[in-house]
Write a structure and sequence with these properties.
By secondary structure, the chain is α/β, with parallel strands linked by helices. The chain folds into 3 domains: 18-154, no CATH class; 189-200 and 345-485, Nucleotidyltransferase, domain 5; 207-337, no CATH class. The protein has helices at 47-65, 68-78, 86-109, 113-122, 124-130, 143-151, 157-170, 172-177, 207-226, 236-253, 259-291, 299-328, 392-402, 418-427, 438-444, 448-472, 481-516, and strands at residues 18-20, 30-32, 189-198, 348-354, 357-370, 375-380, 408-411, 430-433. The strands form 2 sheets. Strands 3, 4, 5, 6, 7 and 8 form a 6-stranded mixed beta sheet that branches. Strand 7, helix 14 and strand 8 (430-433) form a beta-alpha-beta unit. The two termini are 41 Å apart. 32% of the residues are buried.
Length: 517
């Protein structure tokens, strides 16, 4: 890879021409010219904005000068097997760079794709970072493009990006030449914790499921009828109106004298209405399946509507039975047999027993950070999360494979097990996991190293709060486990990149202050 990388010092921008040559016959002599980025205006006051801008500029420099951004583009282009002209390859190269920059902003800003598309149209800083501002006009991308950008990277690409950024901080030469750090970071000490990433589902999860089912089915029926495929029935809006009235009655029933009987009567009406709507939806579904060619839809659009209806129809009997058992039968339903959402089948109930969060609905997330706060290992779990102790061995193996073998491992009482004690001892790793036994804990606290590790481990709780509240969002808005996993990976990437950029900014300021003195 040849060329001079771009650099921005707040006053000047340099245009660069990069030529990339590889052994891939589809990626030989790719030349592209990045968009010209006008200098950002000088801003007086507003310290928070200036700090944010300086950190974002530093993140841009790290991506470019470290070669990480170009490595992403190179890997993407090498995976392409189709024949393309030079012009098309250059356009594809620009697209993948835009995808990386916009995805970074999406996770960093915690804005929706619609809100980010709006901000891109008027924010000079966002336009500069994404190269949307050109000499003649501003050309921001649309919200649909931003949404596609986040999902266009192949599986494992974002994970590799995270590890590349972490390895950059641990490289003795690059950590000084590019990051201006006094010494490289390391994974000698690692600290683990787990949490629940809450999903965006409706609560409570019994009779509300019937409301959700009727809403989805009536919407599907309305779409089909609008295409001219009709079957004899009352207006779909009328069914939704009836369900809303029943939901209001159910909400206010608890304030009446005979609240239990009233709630049971309302649920019986909900069940009856749900079954009627499901029959109408099933008839319209069959009509669409046989006669979709008579509509204005493509086959894929018709399949999408059919899939929505089929999903709800398949889950509705279980949802009705669940609501009946809980409200009318007054019987408990086991968690593994419950439906928590009609649209998110991979959501689980996680009992945490903490103040303000006795029970949470979502997926388990396991995190490991090193001493400087960079996340070096994680696991986002699709199934019901296992005990914390069972995650330690695999985590240590991944850390050693990606970086180096840790010298010590710290965790709370949930990570303690006899198997972990023996494994850490065999590997020569200092065991700083908090024992469950009070007597053993008192003995461990006599060790200064153990005390220091446990004191530092308290900050891992804050790390999880920063990631979930400051980047992921509570609840996580992405739909589908695959998309939730992608968002988690992007948030970890942005967390580490932003923390690194802030660290470099702080180091630069210290150096400038020392020189000025």
């Amino acid at each position: 890879m040849e060329g001079v990388f771009s650099f921005h010092d707040g006053k000047m921008c340099f245009i660069i021409w990069v030529t990339t040559t590889t052994n891939n016959k589809h990626m030989k002599n790719i030349a592209f010219q990045p968009e010209f980025r006008p200098a950002l205006p000088s801003v007086l006051g507003s310290k928070d904005y200036r700090d944010f801008r300086e950190t974002l500029i530093e993140a841009d420099r790290i991506l470019v000068e470290s070669g990480i951004e170009d490595a992403v583009v190179r890997r993407h282009m090498e995976s392409i097997t189709e024949e393309m002209s030079d012009r098309k390859r250059a356009f594809r190269t620009k697209t993948i760079r835009k995808a990386l920059r916009h995805s970074i902003l999406l996770s960093l800003s915690q804005l929706s794709v619609r809100e980010l598309a709006t901000r891109l149209a008027d924010s000079r800083l966002y336009q500069w970072f994404t190269s949307s501002e050109q000499i003649d006009a501003v050309r921001p991308v649309a919200k649909s493009s931003i949404e596609r950008f986040e999902k266009m990277f192949p599986e494992g690409e974002i994970v590799e990006l995270i590890h590349e950024i972490n390895r950059l901080t641990m490289d003795a030469e690059k950590s000084q030449s590019i990051l201006f750090l006094e010494k490289p970071l390391n994974v000698e000490q690692v600290f683990a914790d787990s949490t629940c990433v809450e999903s965006n589902i409706h609560l409570p999860v019994d009779w509300v499921l019937l409301r959700d089912a009727v809403r989805t089915l009536t919407k599907g029926v309305s779409l089909i009828r609008a295409q001219g495929l009709v079957n004899r029935m009352a207006s779909p809006r009328q069914f939704m109106k009836q369900m809303n009235q029943l939901c209001i009655a159910m909400t206010h029933a608890r304030h009446t004298r005979k609240s239990k009987r009233t709630r049971k009567d309302v649920l019986r009406k909900m069940k009856k209405l749900s079954k009627i709507v499901s029959l109408h939806a099933s008839r319209h579904r069959d009509l669409l399946s046989k006669n979709w060619e008579q509509t204005d839809w493509s086959e894929a659009q018709a399949a999408q509507v059919l899939a929505r209806i089929d999903n709800v129809l398949s889950l509705l009997p279980t949802a009705i039975h669940q609501a009946h058992e809980r409200l009318i039968g007054e019987r408990k339903v086991k968690n593994d047999k419950k439906i928590f959402s009609l649209y998110e089948p991979d959501v689980h109930v996680i009992v945490r027993g903490k103040a303000g969060a006795q029970v949470e609905f979502g997926n388990g997330l396991y995190l490991v950070e090193q001493a400087d706060g960079f996340i070096v290992d994680w696991q986002f779990m699709k199934d019901q999360p296992p005990s914390d102790g069972s995650l330690v061995k695999g985590s240590l193996e991944r850390i050693e494979a990606n970086y180096a073998k840790p010298l010590s491992f710290a965790g709370d009482r949930g990570f303690h097990s006899q198997a972990n004690v023996l494994h850490l001892e065999e590997q020569g790793i200092f065991n700083a996991i908090c024992p469950k036994s009070i007597k053993k804990l008192e003995e461990s606290l006599k060790d200064v190293r153990f005390r220091d590790m446990q004191t530092r481990r308290a900050s891992t709780e804050a790390r999880i709060a920063i990631l979930t509240n400051g980047y992921v969002g509570t609840p996580l808005q992405s739909k589908g486990f695959k998309n939730r996993t992608t968002r988690i990976e992007w948030c970890i990437l942005i967390h580490n990149l932003w923390k690194l950029a802030a660290k470099v900014v702080a180091r630069r300021r210290e150096t400038e202050a020392a020189q000025a003195a």
